[in-house]
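User: Hi! I have a protein structure encoded as tokens and I'd like to know what sequence might fold into it. I'm fairly new to this, so please keep things simple.
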């Protein structure tokens, strides 16, 4: 128990110093975006069991945001096509930041989070659907979430996101946000790792490249996979070990 608490403390400490969006991802953010699934907060690349990520998460920030309108995007960066591509999993605009913090009890302690609320009941551009990496290489997929300040966006900017989201495959956040004049408005980010337990299915399929189709590419078939709940603990420990290393070298 003492070890678990130490690890939890290291994770909490590390959450102040590690990167938020995955290495190489643009537009990057170094500010924590809290993404919470029923008390599980998979931050900064940790492994999370698929079943935890099925319902739509709550999102928020650790410091209070002062803009009037925000959007969230969630993208799978590791779709196993040739060449590899991306898939948009969630696009929601019209979010407003809470003015008071909400206490969230997580596996690693209490967090005080300013939640993003959908007070205006804005319909999502792309409704949230959870990770489901197929039994293909790579078995592990990175899912990134970015929060965009749309306070000064005009309707054309939002329309640019909507137009791009019609083709979820190959969704390129940098290209889309540049087209929407929002590339410098990413205010927080996160990613986590969901891993198919395998074994890899080597049956060949008709290869699909990432260009999508005018009719709107359909997401991969969402089969029910056994989920590795046990993966969470090693993931957090591995993360804590990295965190500890970073912490000790500071
Ligand atoms: C916002 O409201 C719409 C319509 O009620 C709902 O479908 C969507 O899930 C809500 N989004 C969030 C982030 O709460
Ligand atoms: C995701 O986690 C798995 C362990 O389940 C690890 O082998 C893999 O390298 C991780 N992938 C990334 C991109 O971090
Ligand atoms: C392996 O992939 C093929 C082609 O997509 C599919 O028809 C088959 O059902 C898959 N097998 C398993 C065990 O998932
Ligand atoms: C993707 O597939 C389409 C349709 O088969 C083809 O026209 C296009 O050239 C391909 N793009 C790449 C990058 O392979
Ligand atoms: C996910 O699956 C694990 C193992 O099968 C189970 O212990 C856990 O309760 C599940 N969690 C959710 C949120 O369904």
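Assistant: Happy to help. Inverse folding works backwards from shape to sequence: for each of the 250 positions I chose a residue that suits the local structure. Here it is:
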């Amino acid at each position: 128990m003492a070890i678990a608490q130490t690890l939890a403390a290291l994770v909490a400490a590390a959450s102040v110093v590690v990167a938020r969006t995955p290495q190489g991802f643009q537009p990057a953010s170094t500010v924590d975006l809290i993404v919470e699934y029923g008390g599980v907060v998979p931050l900064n690349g940790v492994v999370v069991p698929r079943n935890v990520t099925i319902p739509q998460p709550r999102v928020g920030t650790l410091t209070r945001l002062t803009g009037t309108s925000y959007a969230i995007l969630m993208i799978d960066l590791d779709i196993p096509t040739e060449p590899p591509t991306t898939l948009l999993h969630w696009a929601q605009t019209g979010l407003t930041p809470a003015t008071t913090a909400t206490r969230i009890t997580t596996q690693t302690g209490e967090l005080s989070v300013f939640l993003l609320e959908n007070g205006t009941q804005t319909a999502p551009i792309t409704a949230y659907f959870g990770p489901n990496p197929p039994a293909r290489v790579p078995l592990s997929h990175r899912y990134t979430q970015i929060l965009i300040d749309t306070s000064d966006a005009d309707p054309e900017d939002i329309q640019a996101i909507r137009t791009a989201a019609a083709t979820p495959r190959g969704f390129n956040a940098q290209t889309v946000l540049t087209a929407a004049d929002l590339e410098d408005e990413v205010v927080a980010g996160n990613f986590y790792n969901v891993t198919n337990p395998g074994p890899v299915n080597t049956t060949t399929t008709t290869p699909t490249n990432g260009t999508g189709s005018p009719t709107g590419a359909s997401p991969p078939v969402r089969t029910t996979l056994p989920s590795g709940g046990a993966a969470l603990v090693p993931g957090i420990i591995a993360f804590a070990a990295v965190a500890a290393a970073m912490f000790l070298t500071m």
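A useful reference point when you look it over: The chain has a mean pLDDT of 83. Feel free to ask if any position seems puzzling.
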